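user: Here is a favour to ask of a fellow structure person. I have my own habits and do not want them to colour yours. Could you put it straight underneath, so I can go through it closely?

assistant:
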Amino acid sequence: MERDDLQQLLIEHTEAWNAHDLDRLMRLFTDDCVFDASGGPDVHGERFEGRDAVRSAFASVLASMPDAHWGGGRHSVLADDYGVSEWRLTGTRDDGSRLDVLGCDFLTVRDGRIARKNSFRKQRPPSR
């Protein structure tokens, strides 16, 4: 993938999250995609494999914070098939607490779509 195209894919990924558009977001991913969430029981967080599992995980994130916003995006192409997006996630959780954390996604790309999203964020407790 050309570096400029990968840069645009990284930007589109963040814009799709901010639009809360699950269909738009999933069009960016391969059928055999993997999402390693920042939290979970394993060393890699919680892993979701395949389009249906990843879509369900993304839908849960969006439903749990209807006003979620990934701001301050900074996108860097590290290789022809690999990039990182840094962001600040703000949003209100179902229980009314506010989330305000810094994080990043390491994205592996294959054939112009995201094959793996490896997500990290600061472990900061929500505020009231």
